[in-house]
Amino acid sequence: MGKKKEQKEKKEKPLDKWTVKELREEALTIPEIQGVHGMNKDELLTVIKKARGIVEADTGKKVQSLREIKQKVVQLRIARDEERGEGASRLRLTILRKRIARMKRKTRRAG
Fold this sequence. Notes:
mainly alpha
């Protein structure tokens, strides 16, 4: 009896109110979704809504995931190291250093 009641309550709640555990269980039932256990709540919500065809209203503000920001930091560090090896100007290296610092600050806010 308890299992049916739990499933009924889960279906009535909006997706945003589900726990990560419930979202993972739901995502595992959808064959198109892979890497469920490595995702956080925001990523799970996004892929489940996409799989179900639920369209969210665009807020107009672009939100980057933590993984995207960290990938950008890695790319900037590679660019900085390449330009340092080529003998880039001090100004250019300072610009890259500040961009890296700004992106790292975003990771602290996002996490």
